[in-house]
What we know:
Elements: H1 3-7, H2 20-55, H3 57-64, H4 69-94, H5 98-128, H6 142-151, H7 154-159, H8 176-179, H9 192-197, H10 217-222, H11 224-257, H12 266-291
Helix pairs in contact: 2-3, 2-11, 2-12, 3-11, 4-5, 4-12, 5-11, 11-12
Amino acid sequence: MSDAAHSDHPAHLAHHFETSEQQLASAKTGMWVFLATEILMFGGLFCAYAVYRRNNPEIFDIGHRYLDANMGAINTVVLLLSSFTMAWAVRAAQMNQRKLLITMLVLTLMGAFGFMGIKYVEYSHKIHLGIAPGSFYDPHVDEHDEAVKEEATPEAVTQAPSSKPQVPATTPLLPADQQSNIAPAHAAPLGMVAAETEPHDAHGKYGGGDHGHYATQAELDMAFTFFSIYYLMTGLHGLHVLIGIGVIFWLIRRAVRGDFSSEYFTPVDLGGLYWHLVDLVWIFLFPLLYLIH
């Protein structure tokens, strides 16, 4: 193709393409190939999840108690709405609706920040309990122990039935001045009865599942595999969300500058495909990690 022919090309059209349609088709093919590699990467993690869950179901049950399904559900709704606004942004670019394009991209960006904000709250709570990724994994149940102590009031101990045998009625009575120095044989330390008879509510300060109680220290130590998979999969997904935030910022900047129109909206279209993948991966992560137990 001659230089004179190149001079007739629109500014957005690369020199090695004949038409804008050809450029868009080539770009979308490349994006689909990239998305296929992303699916293969996440697919390997899903396979690892399936294998470990099949071999260690009790560990996944323990870890599930520390995930808040309500927060996960809110994040799912947020991502679905942001996927909708991104699709609307692509349509606005195709229809030369610049203001609507900018509005939809900003709403998508707000959804992305909302998702990361909720994920930050989830992560910070687990890290506070020592449930951190990798070599930083050092869980403790101190707050859980405090909850048990709060339940162990003197009234609870008095009212709680004891499984120990009562003192026989034939036990000889001691003088009054000696009885106060001898504790009954069946007396338990303060709080023990309450700890044995009162179930721990998993819907309390942790916002956990419906298992009735949280894990013991030994169980939490065993749950390292679950939380390793949890942080790997959700962390990698969160990294993709952060990349998406950068892409959307870039799209907003170009949209404000007036770079997109019905003749050229390829970056918006490709950014939308990427964001839909981010949404799709989370739709699988949410039930596998938060709902199935």
